[in-house]
Structures are given as structure tokens and as C-alpha cells.
Amino acid sequence: MCGKFDLWIPRSPLPQQLRLHRRRTGLKLTGIGLDSLGRQDKMGISAVLCLCAASLAVAGKGIEGAGVVRSLVFSAESSTDYVTVTPQKPLSLGAFTLCLRLATELRHTRREIILFAYRTQNFDELNLWREYDGRIGLYMSSAGGVIFEMPTLGALQTHLCISWESSSGATTVFFDGRRSLTKIYQKNHHVRSGGIVIIGQDPDDYLGSFDYDQSFVGEISDINLWSKVLPDNVIREMANTGKTSQNGDVIDWSEANLETTGRVDIVQRVLESSEKR
Ligand SMILES: [Ca+2]
């Protein structure tokens, strides 16, 4: 099974009245009839089914060898394409560090992009965004976010981390290993378990109400989540070497089960040669 997918694939962007920017209010796209979208694309449907099967063949658990990392490629904007990530343990967190590597050619002046979404039934528990203006934003428990001025994301890979600790509220971003200023956010908060981790879409309900204009387009990989604040030197080493020196205890990208829905390709990136000289 490929999981949930819609049986229509519009070639063109959704009608303007449906492309509402929103984060905490849902617009149930699966409830929209074909007439309102204009047409049904049967070619598109069979392509999705085929790609879905191909992607799942390389998804799954424990497939990475030494020096090889899985990488997710989202080739086009959509409200249908995403990957669910099964964590190693529940996201019940009083502190965390989230790291990932990504590249996107979506211009920062164009729109926002969801980079990581963890949602429980009623709340965006831990969501990371590239904002409309290119800044990086963290949102927890559907509250207002904490936003950082950052260099522009582009086609060249960026190693991005964000860490947070509850008792102090200290929140810090690391951009290619360089540490930002510290901001205070959601002091004494706790990230709750029972949700679902999604890459590629922003869910406005538990697993749905996706927005074409918030989808991720580009390549994203090496998504690790730790239940603690990592030391600066560990993050700096991962950024400088291109390799994750210690995997996350909450999400371990080398082990996490990935389930694709829609047009997402999983490619294997070889970070270093295994051949002896
Ligand atoms: Ca949304």
C-alpha cells in the first residue's frame, strides 16, 4: 500500500481561491469535487501509483551502509506528496536538537516552505519553516513562532539544526555549523507524544489538509532528532564533514522507517568510498 493519496492530480496550480496561506486553519482538499479543479488527469494517477511502488522498494528500515545516506527528492510542488517518518521513540520532549540537510530552488520571495512537521491531533507540536522572507521559523504547540534571520537557502546543500531546552526556553539555530544568537521561546513547555512526523507537507489536521503553496520542493536528507541539546562542536563537525557523527535517539535517519505517498523519490547518496586503496 502507498498510504493515503488523492485520485486526482491537477497539472496546474490549484484555483486561486483555494491557495490560501494558512497554518492553523484547515481547508480539506480531499473534499473538493473534480469539477472545481477543472479536470481529472488519468495519466497522472497511474504515474503516482508506479512511483509509489518504486519508492517503497528502497524505503524501510536499516538500509544504509557506512557512508551511504537516504535522501528524499521532491521534484514538484503538490498537495499530495509526502513522507511519513517513524521515530525510534515517542516525541515526548523537554529538549531537542533537530538537524537536517536540504537544498531547494524555491525562491524565498515566492512563498514559505515546510521543512519538518510533527503534529498531534490538535496541535502543530514541532514545525520548522522557511518563511516567506527567507527566515527560519520554529513553531511549537500551534503558538506563535520564534524566527531567525538566516542566509538564503539554495541549490547547494545546507546543514541546518535547531535546538531548544524547556527550562530556559533557549533556542538556537545552526546554519552550516555556525551558531546563531540565542532566543527565548516556549519556556517550560513540553513537546507531546502521540503525533506523526511528516516531510514534504504541512498537515492542518492529523494527516491531511495539505497546502500546495507550503509543500517542500527540493532535496532533504539526514533528518535526525535528539532528545537533548547537542554541544556546538558536535553540530559543527557534522556540518563540516557532511556526515552525521552520532544518530538521533528520537529519529535516527539511518534506521527510521520511511513511507512515501505520491511522487517522492528516495535516492542513496554515497558520502565516502568504501573501496580500499
Ligand atoms: Ca498549512
From TrEMBL:
SUPFAM superfamilies: Concanavalin A-like lectins/glucanases. Keywords: Calcium, Disulfide bond, Metal-binding, Signal. Residues 68-273 form the Pentraxin (PTX) domain. GO terms for molecular function: metal ion binding. Transmembrane segments: none annotated. Pfam families: Pentaxin. PROSITE patterns: PTX_1, PTX_2. Coiled coil: none annotated. Its cofactor is Ca(2+). InterPro entries: ConA-like_dom_sf, Pentaxin_CS, Pentraxin_domain, PTX_dom. PANTHER family: C-REACTIVE PROTEIN-RELATED (PTHR45869). This is Pentraxin (PTX) domain-containing protein. It comes from Knipowitschia caucasica (Caucasian dwarf goby). The lineage of its organism: Eukaryota, Metazoa, Chordata, Craniata, Vertebrata.
